[in-house]
Amino acid sequence: MDIDSNAASPAGSAPAGSPFASAHGSVPSHGSSRDAPSDDLHNLATQRNLALACYALHILGGPFTVGAASLAGLIINHLQRDHARGTVYYTHHRWMIGTCWLGAGLALLAGLVCLAFPSLTLLLFPLIGIYLMLRMVTGAINAIHGEPIKD
To answer: 50, 52, 82, 139: which one has the fewest Cβ atoms less than 10 Å from its Cβ?
Structure first.
């Protein structure tokens, strides 16, 4: 290989033998995520993993940790929602946040009803739990497939 063969390459591309050469002959960019599609894919994979971890916390948090794990998932959802803006996982964080607050409201309402009618306790709380689990499992399935939540 002579020196002149490298001079003919377009600006921003690496010589064919260079370790920086890609299939298209260009040098990888170290700029913003818009310059490097692999950064976008890494961010998307990270958002997917975070959403799935939050779903796991919410699903396991209800029956096994009396809501403590779900509370941790809710905090992560609130912290990560803005980072996921522009991806399909933004809708998942919004869905989980809404589901948690809906569950808290329903539990509060059921608690008030059960003060007046204690016999309804064994009916209302399991129904609320099943409804919330169905919402979380549905969301997790959509997240696994990379699909947004349709409100």
So the answer is: 82
Helices 89-116 and 121-144, axial angle in degrees (round to 10)? 180
CA distance 9 to 30: 20
- Helix then strand then coil, in percent of the chain rounded to 5, is 70, 0, 30
| Amino acid (1-letter code) at residue 95 | W
What digits encode the pLDDT tens for the residues 20-77? 343 444 444 444 444 455 678 888 999 999 999 999 999 998 777 778 899 999 999 9
Assess contact for 136 and 77: CB atoms under 8 A. Answer: no
Measured between alpha carbons, how far is 82 from 105 in angstroms, rounded to an integer?
Answer: 24
Specify if 151 maps to a domain: no
Residue owning tokens 């919402």: 135
3-class SS at 26? Answer: strand
DSSP 3-state assignment of 35? coil
- For residues 49 and 21, state if they share a domain: no
| Tens-digit pLDDT profile for residues 122-149 | 999 999 999 999 999 999 999 999 999 9
Q: Is residue 15 part of a domain?
A: yes
